[in-house]
């Protein structure tokens, strides 16, 4: 591709990300994206084939960028225990996009969720933690953190913050971090719950 083609492709992708986030895929047309990106509908089809192809490219790009952000934040956190991540406008948009993609039933978003569960399960097993079902724990953890993306506007409003802002995301993240490091249930309570589940399974 020429530099001009690459620029147009990125402009189309970025316009689609904004519109898919605001309206959802079903309510966004190729013509809407073309107008937002300042290109023709034919150029979108040339680069992505269809709206489904464009959404898949958007999903992949957003997921990759979020993973980079996470890896960079983890690395900085290890180097500096006092490090607090900054959620810039781009990162906030990408988080909102992923939440919308999961709601809209994106196949790529669903596949990426499974990848997250796979990676989380590997990490949990490497920690050699005493847990009865690492796969289920990984899936539950991924769902809880994914739920923050999906419900972030509602959570922000409940906190009295403006949705889609750094302040709202920081408060959510710090609260989630506290809950992850300060279990609400005692080991005894969890043991009783596990025993009850085991009894129920034996009855089936």
Strands, helices and their partners?
Blueprint: H1 3-23, H2 30-37, H3 41-48, H4 51-79, H5 89-104, H6 107-126, H7 134-150, H8 152-158, H9 166-181, H10 187-203
Description:
With 204 residues, the protein is an all-alpha fold. It contains ten helices and no strands. It has helices at residues 3-23, 30-37, 41-48, 51-79, 89-104, 107-126, 134-150, 152-158, 166-181, 187-203. Helix 1 (3-23) packs across helix 4 (51-79), helix 4 crosses helix 5 (89-104) and helix 5 crosses helix 7 (134-150). The longest helix has 29 residues, at 51-79. The radius of gyration is 20 Å and the shape is globular.
Key features of this structure:
mainly alpha; 10 helices; 78% helix; 204 residues; single chain
Following the backbone from N to C, one meets helices and strands in this order, namely HHHHHHHHHH
Question: Helical content, roughly?
Answer: over 70%
Which structural class matches the secondary elements? mainly alpha
Total strand segments: 0
Content of β-strand: under 5%
User: How far apart lie the N and C ends?
Assistant: 60 Å
The coarse overall form would be globular
Mean pLDDT: 85
| Low-confidence spans | none
Query: Mind summarizing the main beta sheet?
Result: none
Count of helical stretches: 10
Q: How big is the Rg?
A: 20 Å
Q: What would a concise description of this structure say?
A:
With 204 residues, the chain is mainly alpha-helical.
